[in-house]
Amino acid sequence: KQEVTQIPAALSVPEGENLVLNCSFTDSAIYNLQWFRQDPGKGLTSLLLIQSSQREQTSGRLNASLDKSSGRSTLYIAASQPGDSATYLCACYTGNQFYFGTGTSLTVIP
Amino acid sequence: EAGVVQSPRYKIIEKKQPVAFWCNPISGHNTLYWYLQNLGQGPELLIRYENEEAVDDSQLPKDRFSAERLKGVDSTLKIQPAELGDSAVYLCASSPRTGANTEAFFGQGTRLTVV
Fold it and tell me: Distance between CA A54 and CA A35 in Å, rounded?
């Protein structure tokens, strides 16, 4: 069974800082990896999807990388803003289902 | 394009009562998932449908949980009877295809509180 781990569990940074969220997975046989954002009491919003053959994807201030052989992905957020405060989850798609990490709770301090 | 729609958003029930959640996936999405998210945890799969067929229900507690997806469109998840430990967020997701581009689209979830 795929195990997905996210470190750190919580992160607090001042506004304007660049930051990196980490995601690791145990089984490299994935189709893709998806990063989500979850605001309190809300569902999951897809941020980026990286196919297994890709190394990175970018959307605005977000950049996600994937190293399938080492079982790692990172989400880089540039110039963080208070509106970025949320929980960020990564999920590995195996062809059958999405396996999620427990998330990183991010707080950006104005 | 409308997203995945779930209802109700919130539900409070007494233990031993039945409860049902409804999900309408994005039009044209053949795959539908029900996930359970406990507080501070990542979502975990309960059941996956391909059209109207439940292809993976291995993690669905079948003694009290049931689900259906009639006509391969919207879906209902039921709990009967509910227990205190069922308090959680129930998320529905859909995806249009399988393969490297498969992307999950989630609804807002139903937050269940069992008292």
Answer: 14
Quick one: tokens of A57? 């994807």
Whether A101 contacts chain B with CB within 8 A: yes
Q: How far is Cα A43 from Cα A27, in angstroms, rounded to an integer?
A: 26
Contact A13, A19 (CB under 8 A): yes
A2 touches chain B (CB under 8 A): no
Q: Which tokens is A31 given? A: 């189709």
What does the alpha-carbon distance between residue B67 and residue B81 come to, in Å, rounded to a whole number?
Answer: 14
Helix, strand, coil percentages in chain B from 3-state DSSP, rounded to 5:
5, 50, 45
State CA B16 to chain mean position distance: 20
Q: Based on C-alpha coordinates, what's the Rg of chain A? A: 13
Reading chain B (115 residues) residue by residue, the pLDDT tens digits are: 689 999 999 999 999 999 999 999 999 999 999 999 999 899 999 999 999 999 999 999 999 999 999 888 999 999 999 999 999 999 999 998 777 778 999 999 999 999 9
Bridge pairing between strands B110-114 and B10-13? parallel
- The upper half-sphere exposure of residue A40, i.e. CA atoms within 13 Å in the direction of its Cβ, equals 5
Distance to chain B for A50, nearest Cα, Å? 8
